[in-house]
Amino acid sequence: MAASVGPIPVPAAGEKQSGYFTFADDPGLAKYQWPFFSIAGASPGPTFLVTAGIHAAEYTGIEAAIRLGREIMPADVSGTVVIIPLLNRPGFYERCIYVNPEDNDNMNRVFPGRPDGTWSERFAHHLLNEVVVRCDYAIDLHAGDMIEDLEPFVIYRETGDTEVDRKARRMIDSYGVAWAMKGLPTGERPGTLYAAAAARGIPAMIAESGRCGLLEEEAVVRHVNGVKNILRTLGILRGAPVDLPPPHVLAHFEWLRSPHEGIFHCGVKVAERVQAGQRLGEMVDLLGNRLAEITAPVGGIVLFVVTSPAIKRDGLLLGIGVPE
Ligand SMILES: [Zn+2]
After folding, report:
1. Nearest alpha carbon to residue 71 among 195, 220, 255, 180
2. What residues does the ion ligand 1 have nearby, CB within 5 Å?
3. How far is the CA of 14 from the centre of ligand 1 (A)?
4. Ligand 1 center to 304 CA (angstroms)
5. Ligand 1 centre and the CA of 11: distance in Å?
6. What would the pLDDT profile of 159-208 be if each residue is shown by its tens digit?
7. Distance from the first to the final alpha carbon of the chain
8. pTM for the structure as a whole
9. How large a percentage of the chain has pLDDT more than 70?
10. 4-246 adopts what CATH topology?
């Protein structure tokens, strides 16, 4: 078994290690230390990567990854489980929404990164090439951000590689939510970690559970149980997996943005089904004058809404998943 996954040390078979690692050959990155757990199973098998906190205020994913690192015991593992609970290390104590304070980049839009780019691009390059591609599976844990309510869902991407797609599908079917978004069809949001992993042949997914910067137990437990059930389905963690109904596949993710700077009066809730043309809310100015009515361009299920009423021009309002 490998003695390391890139900069992350892996102990002898049957042992667990935790601590902090860095990317020593890049001084800008090496200012920071990232927490990790590496769990070397008593018997051999695949290497499974769990990451969280690429968005630093999506706390349920971070908390779930820490719990997984503490709860999973090497005696119950066949293979290796590597966990990085907080990718956006610069943004965590700054309580950053969406971005990383080193360069104001959204770290989940810059993959595969560049060795000589911005801080986030260099981080993406190192993480992908030194860690992610040395694993056999990858899951990235998210939530609604500090200002987002959210209905739990998973995301995967079809690569055209039958084997990679089959394995990714097996992962999302084992997590335990009602909705699965297939790919990033609009091309509006390229550069995600999971999609870059999938493009490099690593079956990968995102799981979204949690909202509004709250450490709600139900949302944390959904992530913990979801990852454990995937690990059991893949034969990496001891125990019979729970046989779950597969999620409904959503073929398109429509993100609505505001044409004006102003105050958002949202008229829908997450998990609500909406019809094309339905009124979803309105934008008003700072005197309460109506600037625009927000209507649904497509029918589907509301997967997230921005809960802060303060919206910049072109600011995000909500996301609708469109069934296949
Ligand atoms: Zn996120």
Report:
1. 220
2. 55, 58, 142
3. 33
4. 11
5. 30
6. 889 999 999 999 999 999 999 999 754 455 679 999 999 999 999 999 99
7. 42
8. 0.97
9. 98
10. Aminopeptidase (3.40.630)
Q: How confident is the model at residue 1 (pLDDT cuts 50, 70, 90)?
A: low
pLDDT in tens, 250-262: 999 999 999 999 9
Going from the Cα of 207 to the center of ligand 1, the distance in angstroms, rounded, reads 9
- Residue 146 to residue 265: CA distance in whole angstroms: 18
Determine the residue type at 130.
E
Q: Which residue type is seen at 178?
A: A
Domain with CATH 2.40.50.100 in the chain: 252-323
Distance 106 CA to ligand 1 centre (A): 9
Give the whole-angstrom CA distance, residue 140 versus residue 10. 20
Gap from CA of 323 to ligand 1 centroid (Å): 21
Using an 8 Å Cβ cutoff, are 177 and 139 in contact?
no
Rg (CA), the chain: 20
- Ligand 1: distance of its center to the CA of 150 in Å? 11
* Cα-based torsion angle of the residue sequence 299, 302, 306, 312 in order, rounded to the nearest 10 degrees: -10
Please tell me the distance between residue 95's alpha carbon and the centre of ligand 1 in angstroms.
14
Ligand 1 center–CA 44 separation, angstroms = 32
Instruction: Please determine, for residue 54, whether its predicted confidence score (pLDDT) is greater than 50.
Output: yes
Number of residues in the chain: 324
Task: Provide the pLDDT confidence category of residue 97 given band limits of 50, 70 and 90.
Answer: very high
The CATH 3.40.630.10 portion of the chain extends over 4-246
Distance (angstroms) between ligand 1 centre and the Cα of 209 equals 10
Q: What is the CATH number of domain 252-323?
A: 2.40.50.100
Q: Strand, helix or coil at 151? A: coil
